[in-house]
Amino acid sequence: MRGAKPESAIEQAIERDGVIAKGERIVVACSGGADSVALAAALAAVRVPMQLELTLAYVHHGTRESAWQDECVTLRIGATFGLPVAVLPLAPADRDEAALRDERYAALARLAAERGATAVATAHHREDQSETVLLALFRGAGPEGLAGMRPRRPLAPGLDLARPLLNIGAEELRAYAHAHALPYAVDPTNADASLRRNAVREALVALRPLFPGIDAAIARAAELTGEDLEGTGRAGLRRQVRLALGEQEGLRDVDFAHVEAAVRAMERGSSGRFFMKPGVELRIERGNIT
């Protein structure tokens, strides 16, 4: 029965969160690593109920000799789930990480155009979001940088970049791959501390025991910043709650979960009493703060 196993939570999140829409044709970027293997497997698991058409794509950067092993893993995953696989070679050359990323996305966009796809899906996860936000902070970025990676954004005309795993942890993705006995490759460049992202990754490893939930907190801050920038309806409701609490000097030390409970009630047009913290209560009637 679907949903009876813990690992099915990843599949349920993809179906529920709406980053991938029903009936889409998707190019799945698969590097052969645990994260992208888990993404490919989870999308394959939901392709029938979501009516998805999937193509796996491996971008061969030509920067290290072991890349053929990653390509073999991707081909194996495609064969396991009966999915077509496209190998996209890049011309060998000395390029920095940013240039490689731009060329990778350009190659994926060309394939998506050929296949009539509406989105390219990547396996960026919660820890990737933490690294992205901190790197933006260290650069002195403004709100757009601190919003981190968005779950879905335009990549090319008529094509989006979709990240359906941003709220999933890397350990959960590895556990998913193990639960399904799926092979995956390990990128040796992840151990190169001279790369800024890897250095930030190592710092986060040291911080997590001291700050449990740090990745979820960073992801939440990025999500809130992004929604504020986009001017979403939920962002507007959050402002109403904060203003109402601020008028009574009750905003300090209010747990985020309590604010979100009130916001969800306002979205539904519900009524009720919501306790923000000891001595502070918010009353909502038919979706309005009273």
The overall pLDDT, averaged over residues, is: 90
CATH superfamily of the largest domain: HUPs
Number of helices: 11
Oligomeric state as shown: single chain
CATH fold-level name of the largest domain = Rossmann fold
Q: What is the total domain count?
A: 2
Low-confidence stretches: none
- Give the topology string: H per helix, E per strand: HEHEHEHEHHEEHHHHHEEE
Shape call: globular
Structural class: alpha/beta
Helix content: 40-55%
- Compute the separation of the termini in Å: 45 Å
- Which radius of gyration do the C-alpha atoms yield? 21 Å
Overall strand count: 9
Placed side by side, the strands forming the largest sheet appear as: 3-2-1-4-6-5
Please give the CATH architecture of the largest domain: 3-Layer(aba) Sandwich
Largest sheet: 6 strands, mixed
At the first level of CATH, the class of the largest domain is Alpha Beta
Keywords, please?
9 strands; alpha/beta; 11 helices; Rossmann fold; globular; 2 domains; single chain; 3-stranded antiparallel β-sheet; 290 residues; 6-stranded mixed β-sheet
How is this structure best described in words?
- It is a single chain.
- By secondary structure, this protein is α/β, with parallel strands linked by helices.
- It has two domains: 8-207, Rossmann fold; 232-289, no CATH class.
- The chain contains eleven helices and nine strands.
- It has helices spanning 8-17, 34-50, 67-81, 97-115, 126-138, 143-146, 170-179, 196-207, 214-230, 233-247, 256-268, and strands at 25-29, 53-60, 85-89, 119-121, 152-156, 159-162, 272-277, 280-285, 288-289.
- A six-stranded mixed beta sheet has the order 3-2-1-4-6-5, with helices on both faces. Strands 7-8-9 form a three-stranded antiparallel beta sheet, covered by helices on one side.
- A hairpin with a 2-residue loop joins strand 5 and strand 6.
- The longest helix is centred in the middle third of the chain and has 19 residues, at 97-115.
- The chain is globular, with a radius of gyration of 21 Å.
- 29% of the residues are buried.
- The model has no long low-confidence stretch (mean pLDDT 90).
